[in-house]
Amino acid sequence: MHAPVHSALPRIRPKPRIRLSILLALLLTATLLVPAPATAAPGTTAWQNGSFVVDTPNVVRRSDIVLQRPNTAPTESLPLGNGALGAAVWAADGFTAQLNRTDTFPDRKSLGHLVIPGLSRLTTAPDFTAKLDLYDGMLRQSGGGMTLTAFVRADTQQLVVDVTGADPNSTQTAQVKLWSGRSPQARASGGTAALAETWVDNNGAGASGRTFGSLAGITAGGRNVVASTPNNLTAQVSFQPNTNGSFRVVVAAPTWTGGDAIATTNTVLNGAAQGEVRNAHLQWWHNYWSSAGLIKISSADGTGDYVENLRAIFLYASAAQSRGVLPGSQAGVADLFTFSQDKRDWYPAGYWFWNLRMQVAANLAAGLPALNDPMFRLYNDNRDAIAAWTSAHMPGKQGLCVPETMRFNGNGTYNGGNDNASCDSTIPPMWNSLNVTTGAEVGLWVWEHYRMTDDRAFLERHYPLIKGAAQFLLSHATTGSDGKLHTRSNAHETQWDVTNPATDIAAMQSFFPAAVKAAQLLNVDAALVSQLNAAIPKIQTLPRTDTATQTQLLTPADDANGHTMIGPSTQPAAQRRNFENIGLEAVWPFNLIGDNSALGRRTFTARSYVNSHTWSYDSLHAARLGMANEVKTSLLAAIRQFQVYPSGMASFTAQPASEPYIEQSGVLAVAVPEALAQDYDGLLRIAPAWPSDWTGEGTVAIGHKSKVHVQITAGTPTTVAITSGANQQLAVRSPWPGQSVTVLDGQTRATVVAPQSNATFTIPAQAGRSYLVEKTGSAIQPFQALSGTPATTPRRYDKATIGLPKSTGTISLKARANGKYVTAGTGTPLIANSTTIGTAQQFDLADLGNGNVSLKARANGLFVAADNAGAAPLLAKNAAVGSWETFQLIRNPDGTVSFRAQVNNNLVCAENAGAAALIANRTAIGPWESFDLTYN
Asked: Distance (Å, rounded) from C-alpha 430 to C-alpha 497?
């Protein structure tokens, strides 16, 4: 559900707690409907002559999104983007694309829908197929003798749609349209039309007073192109295809704050209607993928392959949303790919750092630090505003209290008000009013970016964030009679106004030493360094509570009994208002506890909230704690629960809703490389939490511009190679504990570290050199490049899919009228009366062509009929398909389906709000006529 600002969670959106036993049961019963491809050839290595050789195009294309039927519903849309301009594309009305930008604040308004009706011949053709080619950043469709290639150009602010196979004598139209509630100016001149609108951000507390706007200008490449404005909400071009049946539609969609819309459109178009538009776009995407740390995963049950696909889709989406001035995602939503006109979840003018940080980490682990530039700009460019907010709303404190929910212009207001503000001690305690560690987190990511890149200029530019956050925490903490630092704050959003939250303690333990290192490296702020060094010994230990009740305040001395865990604060029994596992923040992102900690593992095992939301960090925490089985279990549980869109995106509500969420795949995209390799504390661990039944092959970025390349099969690493980006003493934990290990030069195979069997060893690495870590005396493995086969079918795990399969398979139907599954009785009509799925709730869906389907009940093997020519309820009664057994399958904009009986042309209804039998007797679609269709 979506919470109103004054009465419910600003980020958490509560759901019922999911018990671990239920999740495990679901995992055991999960079935894969797509066979897994073969794993890598045994006994081979992708390492050759100093390089880890990857067939990048084909490894990336293993994760292409394949459509075997048209994606006619907005919830089935696929994402295109260049980092500032994005589009959600689906097949309604031939071709529909909702255009979105990162800079239409404060409400993130859409630029409109591009609609090309003439493409209906393609999208309704029986031979329709489509694929989102991740490597090229292009959507390709074919059907009915036509082809389409659509892409948002990586090199400029354009959406391009290239078409072949059209009737040269036809008249085509393409429109950019807005909707009621918007007030654009529609203009046309020659072959160009445009919709432009501006507004001022001047409503509510925290408004910036700045002008924002939207512009979508359209033209076409074809013959006799004429632009017009059919109404004040529509800009249109009409034209004939070229004589060879080809045409092109181009939409220009730049940043807009006012001016001459036609002139600006033509400037951005720059001859694109007829000119070359692909080369620079393809070059950008190919370069991007060549620099990304890819990880190929294979498993007999197909789960590894599915997880690999989701990570690749995240890396694609991250590039497609993260190249604007500010981040393209807020509250975990993939805003650039939203499909519900101007409807936005949560607080579109603001950013939650909790929902950005997994994306930051995933980008770094993939070796793509530039994708985090918008996040760092958000905070660094707003330092003055944050300082002013801190002074006014955290009186008596110094430095920067970075608001957890921060408006794009740097203040802590929430949805135009102050009653739910962040970093605000002047209001009663609320969700984030006393959440004071966001600044420390941002500062730690500044330091981590530096650790990964050795970019001193970056550190110098962003050091003021570190300084300001350290000054604030120093001023916020007070020294108690015990000589320790004490705070009274929120334990993030879970406990409000409590003593010594674990988040405060973990932040100080992790951040203060990093701030000292940064200041000393830059040779600045000696006085601050002295203050921090004096404070560090006074930081308390993490609070303890009991695993059984989580209400007792215990101490580290109690750890010996084996029943302690890290508590949320020194008031463990205080009311909990959110579903965050606060004790595990010490594991990640604060990096204080790793896989050698029994306390950390107990805290994970006894955690209160299992797979609670799309942002659940369960898999990432499990990876840091070396819990390989839990990594897999947690990843798959999140997929089953939340990944409901064929784009690979998730829904916070666990069913298709208003917007796609990227945060679930973001957590996955950092958990996977963390399971393969970690060096967060300066010790490189190889496969510390890799599931034993997954074959993993790929690259993980590590500190100092370095990379580690790993191939692992059946729980045993077979290739471990390191390319060093700096001169460094690289500490490594042995990949084969207790066995003799030798380190060789990666190119010459000269010995660098003589045979030894230590638990850890050090490589004297040099910049630009590579190193092989091998079992002493092992034979040289034959070479085989890491490669793959492009996807040709949708992929499915349990009820989740990537792509769209044909309208066939075993399904169940849940009536929206009452939330219950439809049951086929023996000799009794269909009725929505079950809360679980069994044989009686399963149907074989068959595609009859032309949008029609049949349903065969698994209960008796008979086809469902609109009995008595539709005058009687639906009944599974006949052995053959005729008009009574034929239904048009309608895919609704909200992701539900409806069925229209061919025999009487009426819609199937769960009569009497589901209390009566299903019957085909309605002419319009409402909740009673809507069903959630899930594949079994």
From this structure: 9
Question: Which residues have a Cβ under 8 Å from the Cβ of 479 and sit 6 or more positions away?
Answer: 485, 486, 538
**Whole-number Å distance between alpha carbons of 726 and 768:** 7
Task: Find out whether the peptide bond into 717 is cis, omega within 30 degrees of 0.
Answer: no
Instruction: Name the more confident of 427 and 849.
Output: 427
Average pLDDT over all residues of the chain: 94
Helix (H, G, I), strand (E, B) or coil at 815: strand
**What Cα–Cα distance (Å) separates residue 689 from each residue in 42, 594, 717, 735?**
21, 11, 12, 12
Instruction: Provide the residue type at 860 as one letter.
Output: N
Cα of first residue to Cα of last residue in the chain, in angstroms, is 25
CB 372, CB 696: distance < 8 Å: no
Task: Say how far apart CA 171 and CA 220 lie, in whole Å.
Answer: 12
What is the rounded CA–CA span in Å between residue 622 and residue 900? Answer: 47
| CA dist list (Å): 794 to 68, 180, 802, 803 | 8, 37, 6, 5
CB 401 within 8 A of CB 407: no
Please state, as a whole number, how many other Cβ atoms lie within 10 Å of the Cβ of residue 349: 25
* Phi, psi of 645, rounded to the nearest 5 degrees: -95, 140
**Residue 18 three-state SS:** coil
Q: Are 124 and 114 in contact (CB under 8 A)?
A: no
| pLDDT tens digits for range 799-827 | 899 999 987 789 999 999 999 999 998 88
Summarised one tens digit per residue, pLDDT across range 276-317 is: 999 999 999 999 999 999 999 999 999 999 999 999 999 999
Per-residue CA distances from 786 to 57, 669, 821 (Å): 11, 20, 45
Whether residue 315 contacts residue 368, with contact meaning beta carbons closer than 8 Å, is answered with yes
SS3 at position 721: strand
Q: Where are the beta strands (DSSP E) in 714-794?
A: 716-723, 728-733, 741-745, 751-756, 760-765, 770-775
pLDDT for position 31: 35
Mean pLDDT of 377-406: 98
Radius of gyration of the chain (CA): 29
Return the structure tokens found at 317.
Answer: 């989406």
Give dist(CA 767, CA 754) in Å, integer.
Answer: 20
Confidence band, pLDDT 50/70/90 cuts, at residue 41:
low
Q: Do 214 and 256 contact (CB within 8 A), yes or no?
A: yes
Instruction: Please report, to the nearest 10 degrees, the dihedral formed by the alpha carbons of residues 444, 450, 452, 457 taken in order.
Output: 160
pTM of this structure: 0.90
Residue 431, token pair as written in the block: 């969700």
Q: Which of 801, 818, 820 is nearest to 809 (CA)?
A: 801
| 147 close to 139: Cβ distance less than 8 angstroms | no
Q: Is 590 left (phi over 0), alpha (psi -120 to 50) or beta?
A: alpha
CA 629, CA 622: separation in Å to the nearest integer? 8
